[in-house]
């Protein structure tokens, strides 16, 4: 079990799990304690941020070292989804690969080339390994995580159209869903971008305020369902993508303020690849929220994305003059920490488990 960024997950070598996906998912649900809103009989933490799994194996591709399959498990719903990446859990993949001997550690620093199986895209994780051992202690602080830890630098490649096949899956920089102007973009995470004011919000509401607004959550669900169809994702009622991200002017020293939903539950922060995708969209002339970039420093490609518990700095370079626009570079600094290494005991399988679904 590792914390990666602002998420926590169970990390497995693929060889230690059943090869049949249905059997694998059944085992993971029982290990996590899903379905149960408290996940009291498993290792989950009763939130979507702590109900995640990374499956890691040696890569068969010559340009990468390991393959990383991300699985998002439901909490009170027996759901296992492979339809998205997770940039936070990604931060733990490199250290895990070294811990398990899948990649040999460097004398001072190690870079692990990772194929993100969900999107068939790549990332390089670079982190300290003094003396050939992963160093988790450090002075890097990230919002949403107490204390400090060692940096894990993530550089992404080939993330355009990670799920939809295109940076702009509708072919347009701006669309309309009902009365709401939107930009649908996918640079590592399918996102439907809208202004908070379009939902009658300031964009500065707390996580608790958003979670208590049942009418808002219902509207977000209807909105993202229509966005999913528009983005060519079909029926997304049982999927965690696309993510709905609402933007407003920054007010805590960053460049943009965000409120995001997974898929309708308010996020206490923002996902790494969601933040990358949001900034990618905002940099496109004519996109929803592009006016917020007017005062961004012209000589700096890093952007501070504010969220309910702090901010996340991402690095994004976009060629908006290309037709269609291109994402040239993206990256982020995260931290990770090994929490536990041992044997987990799944609860016994019951007849009720036959109701589980996976996607």
Explain the layout of strands and helices.
Blueprint: E1 2-4, E2 7-13, H1 21-32, E3 52-58, E4 66-73, E5 79-81, H2 87-99, E6 109-116, E7 121-128, E8 151-157, E9 175-177, E10 180-186, E11 190-195, H3 207-212, H4 214-230, E12 243-248, E13 256-262, E14 265-266, H5 272-282, E15 302-307, E16 310-319, E17 326-338, E18 357-358
Parallel strand pairs: 2-3, 4-6, 5-18, 11-12, 13-15
Antiparallel strand pairs: 1-2, 1-17, 3-4, 4-5, 6-7, 7-8, 8-17, 9-10, 10-11, 12-13, 13-14, 15-16, 16-17
A few lines on this structure:
This protein is an alpha+beta fold. It has helices at residues 21-32, 87-99, 207-212, 214-230, 272-282; strands at residues 2-4, 7-13, 52-58, 66-73, 79-81, 109-116, 121-128, 151-157, 175-177, 180-186, 190-195, 243-248, 256-262, 265-266, 302-307, 310-319, 326-338, 357-358. The chain has 5 helices and 18 strands.
Notes on the protein architecture:
The protein folds into 2 domains: 181 residues, Diaminopimelate Epimerase, Chain A, domain 1; 150 residues, Roll (Diaminopimelate Epimerase, Chain A, domain 1), CATH 3.10.310. An 8-stranded mixed beta barrel has the order 1-2-3-4-6-7-8-17. The protein is α+β, with helices and mostly antiparallel strands and 359 residues long. The protein is 16% helix and 31% strand. It starts with a strand and ends with a strand.
């Amino acid at each position: 079990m590792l914390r990666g960024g602002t998420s926590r997950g169970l990390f497995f070598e693929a060889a230690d799990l059943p090869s049949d996906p249905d059997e694998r998912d059944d085992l993971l649900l029982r290990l996590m304690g899903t379905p149960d809103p408290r996940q009291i009989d498993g290792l989950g933490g009763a939130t979507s941020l702590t109900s995640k799994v990374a499956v890691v194996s040696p890569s068969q591709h010559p340009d990468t070292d390991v393959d990383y399959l991300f699985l998002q498990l439901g909490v009170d719903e027996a759901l296992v989804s492979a339809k998205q990446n997770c940039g936070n859990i990604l931060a733990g993949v490199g250290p895990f690969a070294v811990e398990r001997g899948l990649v040999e550690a460097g004398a001072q620093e190690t870079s692990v080339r990772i194929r993100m199986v969900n999107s068939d895209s790549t990332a390089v994780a670079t982190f300290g390994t003094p003396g050939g051992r992963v160093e988790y202690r450090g002075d890097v602080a990230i919002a949403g995580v107490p204390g400090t830890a060692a940096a894990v630098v993530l550089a992404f490649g080939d993330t355009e159209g990670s799920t939809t096949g295109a940076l702009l899956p509708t072919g347009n920089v701006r669309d309309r869903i009902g009365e709401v102007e939107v930009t649908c973009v996918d640079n590592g995470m399918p996102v439907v971008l809208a202004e908070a004011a379009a939902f009658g919000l300031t964009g500065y509401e707390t996580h608790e305020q958003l979670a208590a607004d049942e009418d808002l959550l219902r509207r977000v669900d209807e909105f993202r369902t229509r966005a999913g169809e528009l983005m060519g994702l079909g029926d997304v009622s049982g999927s965690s993508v696309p993510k709905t991200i609402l933007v407003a002017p920054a007010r805590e020293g960053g460049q943009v303020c965000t409120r995001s939903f997974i898929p309708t539950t308010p996020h206490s922060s923002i996902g790494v690849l969601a933040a990358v995708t949001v900034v990618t969209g905002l940099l496109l002339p004519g996109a929803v929220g592009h006016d917020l970039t007017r005062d961004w420093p012209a000589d700096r490609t890093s952007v501070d994305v504010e969220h309910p518990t702090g901010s996340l700095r991402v690095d994004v370079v976009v060629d908006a003059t290309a037709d269609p626009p291109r994402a040239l570079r993206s990256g982020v600094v995260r931290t990770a920490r090994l929490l536990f290494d041992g044997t987990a005991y799944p609860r016994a399988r019951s007849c009720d488990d036959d109701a589980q679904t996976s996607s």
